[in-house]
Amino acid sequence: MQESLYIAASGGMIQQRKMETLANNLANVSTSGFKKDSLVFKEILPGLNPNLDFESSKQALQEPRYSNRSVSYAGLTDFATHYSQGGLTATQNPLDLALEGDGFFKVGTEEGPRYTRKGNFHLDENNRIVSASGLPLLSPKDQEIVVPSNGGTITIDPQGTVTVGDAVQAITVGKLDVVHFGDKSQLKKDGESLFRQVAGDPPEKAPASTTIRQGFVESSNVNLVQEMTTMIQTIRTFEAMQKLIQTIDDLNGQSINSIARVA
């Protein structure tokens, strides 16, 4: 009976974490460049190291000290970020940039480079092109992009070359570094739609098929209807787990009373 209680409790806790993740996705449905998350689960067998994979766990269960070899629980492995393309929204702001295709803009922080698809950029007091939170856009050589104060119109072509001037005369002031990660599991979210690399080789140059759209921003890839539907399903599952726990508790109480009467 206790095993049933643990199974229901683990299921309920997983649904609670799932609701928290869905709530965060919904809170960022209007955040430029936001990438939604989901939870990754695995099956955990009782009495075993939760870091074992399922096949190793099954072999370990052949040992006689495990009384019930058919019981398993739900465990949380990690968060999975979905990197699908968000829609592009026209803003007509020349420093709003959107990536169409696989890749990330590189920005500088005191802790090292960070990567983002949030393209709401502007000029700071030093005429640097910076993110909404003030982080400078970087070139492939990790140089900041500085625009002359009297240079004229800022143009950023699909490959990231930044020029300033007019139709008669324009100067190149830098090139944006757009990078690509073959294995995105190397990335972890770092707030403000930023990602940091936690493992692996340095990123590569983004593929030629990736282009920059000036005057656009990439919307969040959260589908509001889909997330709301999943939230409703998750709430119902959580409520079912709660009812199951209550039922098991009631049965335990009845069993205790029956034993007491017999005694």
From TrEMBL:
Report the principal subcellular site: other
What is the annotated localization of this protein? Bacterial flagellum basal body
Name the GO cellular-component terms: bacterial-type flagellum basal body, rod
| Residue ranges annotated for the Flagellar basal-body/hook protein C-terminal domain, each copy included | 213-257
Which residues lie in coiled coils? none
- Domain Flagellar basal body rod protein N-terminal intervals: 5-35
Q: Which Pfam families match?
A: Flg_bb_rod, Flg_bbr_C, LlgE_F_G_D1
Instruction: Print the keywords alphabetically.
Output: Bacterial flagellum, Cell projection, Cilium, Flagellum
InterPro entries per UniProt: Flag_bb_rod_N, Flagellar_basal_body_rod_CS, Flagellar_FlgE/F/G, Flg_bb/hook_C_dom, FlgE/F/G-like, FlgF, LlgE_F_G-like_D1
One Gene Ontology term from the biological process aspect of the record: bacterial-type flagellum-dependent swarming motility
Enumerate the spans annotated as Flagellar hook protein FlgE/F/G-like D1 domain: 98-164
Protein family according to the UniProt entry: Belongs to the flagella basal body rod proteins family.
NCBIfam families documented for this protein: FlgEFG_subfam, flgF
Protein name stated in the entry: Flagellar basal-body rod protein FlgF
Q: Organism source for this protein?
A: Candidatus Nitronauta litoralis
Gene giving rise to this polypeptide: flgF
